[in-house]
Design brief:
The chain is built from 5 helices and 6 strands. The chain is of the alpha/beta class. It has a single domain (about 10-185), classed as Ribonuclease H-like superfamily/Ribonuclease H (Nucleotidyltransferase, domain 5, 2-Layer Sandwich). Strands 1-6-5-2-3-4 form a 6-stranded mixed sheet. This is Crossover junction endodeoxyribonuclease RuvC.
């Protein structure tokens, strides 16, 4: 992947460019070895619409390799079925347990591979940025994120926390995308 220039607010652009106008489908991903959340938003003029969300849940008895295979297949399937045009993924966070860090990195890796295989640009956001996009606070708890995602998108049902986190990442990208487009139009 070609590296882009990160804006001041710590968004890391991996590839791609932002088009002006039209509807865009953004897939948010909250990677985890056992419960990878995903959410697909359609970015409309002035609003977002949730098209799909869920959790790729892998049983506790599955090997790490089986988990990664299921994450890859699940992400690939959603990308194709929902016709996602961009992926927003949580960036690496600091964890004290080295094994957890390795597993998280592997889950992120297969997600990036799935995106790369269909040539979809990937954008990374820190978890605090995603929480801020959904709740206004980077230190929000999972229940607060889920509640606000539901409220912002006018949903009737509660979302699983992992899916809500993924939708929050997509919302962070939608907000960054809108800011970037506004800046381009004003220049």
């Amino acid at each position: 992947m070609r590296a882009g220039t990160p804006p001041k607010d710590s968004l890391t652009l991996r590839r791609g460019s932002l088009s002006i106008g039209g509807h865009v489908r953004i897939m948010g991903v909250d990677p985890s070895l056992r419960r990878t959340g995903y959410g697909v938003l359609e970015l409309l003029p002035g609003s977002e619409r949730l098209l799909d969300c869920g959790v790729i849940a892998v049983g506790p008895k599955k090997s790490e390799l089986d988990c990664l295979r299921e994450i890859y297949r699940g992400i690939s399937q959603v990308l194709v079925e929902q016709k996602a045009e961009e992926i927003a993924i949580e960036s690496v966070i600091y964890v004290q347990n080295h094994r957890t860090a390795i597993q998280l990195g592997a889950a992120r890796g297969v997600t990036l591979l799935a995106a790369g295989n269909v040539d979809i640009p990937v954008f990374e956001y820190p978890p605090r940025r995603a929480k801020t996009a959904a709740t206004g606070s980077g230190s929000s708890r999972k229940a607060q994120v889920a509640f606000m995602v539901r409220s912002l998108l006018g949903l009737r049902e509660n979302l699983p926390f992992d899916a809500a986190d993924a939708v929050a990442v997509a919302l962070a990208h939608a907000a960054a995308r809108r800011r970037s487009l506004a800046l381009r139009r004003s220049s």
